[in-house]
Design goal:
Order of helices and strands: EHEHHEHEHEEHEHEHEHHE
Distance between the termini: 24 Å
Helix content: 40-55%
Strand content: 15-25%
Oligomer: single chain
CATH superfamily of the largest domain: HUPs
Radius of gyration: 22 Å
Number of domains: 2
Number of strands: 10
């Protein structure tokens, strides 16, 4: 096993979804026989800028005392963040070990989460992260502040967790013929993660003939791989609503789809389909680019 290219990474921040992130990451790690890394970043934000900008309005001696206080307080904050990170990672380690992971990797890192993930991207087999972090913990209508940047920056599978863990039995693959959708089909066909599951392969289109053609090509690949019960379905209507309705009606446990296939300008003008799905779905969403 090549740990450098085959690691499941769980992002831990102490939010309400952290336990579910641990549980899903442990489930994935065991099914694909890959090591599990628990990652927590300590972002040392510069907290002095707003105050030091006032230095021109106070005396030089007062400014020196103020800066000394700021430095001392920031050092205390850094120490507390380090201690908190150790506690969070230890709790996460104990939880995944209870779920059957014998030797999880603990990875405290300093710096920005997005930058930290980009640095280790080559080692990621799958990233597991909560829909919201601590900042938006009690705001169910919000997406985590850094989640969009992470999805746009990484070219690895990302499982976005939005509920307590439930061992997936039925998955839905939203297929539209795009490169990301083809990648999802290849993953479902080849990965041990999905063996023994029921896969609903769905296509949303106004053109029934196009849907049928797309579904036939994708279903052949999954069927030939074996080990998966496949159901195909053509859907019509607004894509995000049609997928979420189907998900609810058929008790889908996890949805797979491509992410952010349009340009940023397109998303600004028309709204991002990925963002709509992240907000609308009530089940974990596995995104591929």
């Amino acid at each position: 096993m090549n740990i450098k290219t085959n690691t499941v990474i769980a992002c831990i921040d102490g939010s309400g979804l952290s336990e579910a992130v641990c549980d899903y990451a442990a489930w994935i790690s065991q099914r694909v026989n890959a090591p599990l890394k628990l990652l927590h970043t300590i972002d040392h934000h510069p907290e002095t800028a707003a105050i030091t900008d006032l230095s021109g309005n106070i005396g030089e001696d007062s400014c020196d005392y103020l800066l000394e206080d700021i430095i001392r307080i920031e050092q205390q904050h850094s120490t507390l963040r380090l201690q908190q990170g150790k506690v969070l990672l230890q709790a996460a380690k104990e939880r995944v070990m209870q779920n059957g992971i014998a030797d999880p990797i603990i990875s405290p890192r300093h710096g920005n989460l997005v930058e930290s993930l980009i640095e280790v991207e080559d080692s990621i087999r799958m990233l597991v992260i909560g829909l919201r972090g601590k900042v938006h913990d009690n705001q169910p209508g919000q997406i985590g502040a850094k989640l969009e940047s992470i999805i746009r920056s990484l070219h690895k599978p990302i499982l976005v967790v939005n509920e307590a863990f439930k061992s997936p039995q039925r998955i839905m693959l939203a297929y539209d013929g795009s490169n990301a959708a083809e990648k999802a089909v290849d993953m479902v066909a080849s990965s041990p993660l999905y063996k023994g599951l029921i896969c609903h392969l769905v296509c949303v289109s106004k053109d029934e003939a196009t849907s049928q053609k797309l579904l036939e090509a994708a279903s052949d690949k999954i069927t030939q791989a074996g080990g998966i019960d496949l159901i195909t379905q053509k859907l019509t209507g607004k894509t995000d609503q049609a997928l979420c309705d189907y998900q609810s009606e058929h008790s889908i446990d996890m949805t797979l789809m491509g992410a952010y296939s349009h340009t940023r300008l397109h998303d600004m003008l028309l709204g991002s389909f990925t963002a709509k799905m992240l907000l609308s779905t009530r089940k974990p969403l596995l995104l591929l680019r």
